[in-house]
């Protein structure tokens, strides 16, 4: 199975940097040549060409809407009504839609989010978010195998 892992968020906004941190760890641990791993500040339309040949894309991000340290996994699909206007950032389902519209197909998507409590300027994760790293890395590796 060809997989892409995209950890996104701002690494200088404390808990918002969890996505890129997870991606970095997965990149070190994933030994398969069928896995591409990206660390991004945000999801942008140019990523559509990077994911178009994947079977599965795993998105990892922080959430201000979940309790701090709470992990949520949801399977997502391309949304036909998602805005595909030229924008500077996209939601994961909109990126899958960009892919569908440009290549005629869309990989399956999994969005893993972890609730954060601190989104202030800084590079340190809150203790609740830091504790989730091993579980999210483990689950991501399970999803790519």
Low-confidence stretches: none
For CATH, the homologous superfamily is named as HybD-like
Q: Let me know the average pLDDT.
A: 91
Q: Supply the number of helical segments.
A: 5
Structural summary, described in words:
By secondary structure, the chain is an alpha/beta fold. It has one domain: HybD-like (Rossmann fold), CATH 3.40.50.1450. 30% of the residues lie in helices and 23% in strands. The protein contains five helices and five strands, in the order E-H-E-H-E-E-H-E-H-H. The protein has a five-stranded mixed β-sheet. Helix 1 crosses helix 5. The longest helix is centred in the first third of the chain and has 12 residues. The chain is globular and about 40 Å long. The model has no long low-confidence stretch (mean pLDDT 91).
Which helices and strands appear, and what pairs or packs with what?
Layout: E1 3-8, H1 18-29, E2 35-40, H2 48-51, E3 56-63, E4 71-76, H3 92-103, E5 108-115, H4 127-130, H5 133-144
Parallel strand pairs: 1-2, 1-3, 3-5
Antiparallel strand pairs: 4-5
């Amino acid at each position: 199975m060809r997989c892409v892992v995209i950890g996104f968020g701002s690494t200088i906004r404390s808990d918002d940097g969890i996505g890129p941190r997870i991606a970095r760890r997965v990149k070190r641990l994933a030994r398969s040549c069928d896995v591409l791993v990206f660390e991004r500040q945000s999801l942008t339309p140019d990523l559509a060409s990077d994911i178009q040949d994947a079977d599965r894309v795993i998105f990892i991000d922080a959430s201000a809407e979940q309790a701090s340290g709470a992990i949520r996994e949801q399977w997502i699909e391309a949304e036909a009504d998602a805005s595909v206007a030229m924008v500077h950032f996209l939601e994961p389902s909109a990126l899958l839609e960009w892919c569908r519209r440009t290549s005629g197909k869309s990989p399956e998507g999994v969005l893993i989010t972890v609730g954060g409590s601190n989104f202030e300027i800084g590079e340190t994760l809150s203790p609740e978010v830091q504790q989730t790293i091993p579980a999210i890395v483990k689950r991501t590796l399970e999803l790519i195998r």
